[in-house]
Amino acid sequence: MKIPLLFFACVFSGQAAMAQLKATAVCPPFTTDVMDGNVNGLYPRSAIEEIRTKFPCATDIAEQASATTCAGVFFKTLGVYFYTERNYIEIGENYKGKLFPALMGVSRTTLFPLLGKPKLTDPAWEAFQMGYGTLVLYYNKAGKVNKIQISTKSTEALRLCEF
What we know:
Elements: H1 2-18, E1 30-33, E2 38-39, H2 48-54, E3 60-62, E4 72-75, E5 80-83, E6 88-91, E7 97-100, H3 112-115, E8 120-121, E9 125-130, E10 133-139, E11 145-151
Parallel strand pairs: 1-7
Antiparallel strand pairs: 1-2, 3-4, 4-5, 5-6, 6-11, 8-9, 9-10, 10-11
């Protein structure tokens, strides 16, 4: 009785020893500089491979655009989306990182001293001309910033991914 039990214990421990440990990819903390238009030094024109190398924890990667998605690298749980095909970065309301200046949740009425007059305006968003291109700020019903888009394109050339 002891020998078969010992045999099964050896076989089981041998299989456990052959198992591979896989580390979960960990991203460095995100830091977004809205005035310079980058996330950890990556700009909207950054290539997919460059983003994957710097941030190995992407939740989704779309190498090519399809009928239901734009090409890019997405960090849905962290609130960061790199739309590489259309050269813009989106920071969502659930953003997990540092934001300079801290615009998320700021009232639209307090932005003029920092950003000046918007180039385009709508009840739900405003687009500001920046040195790198366009900054689009979206507002919730209370008039507070809840989404940020940083693009290298002008307001006339900007094409957003809206699926």
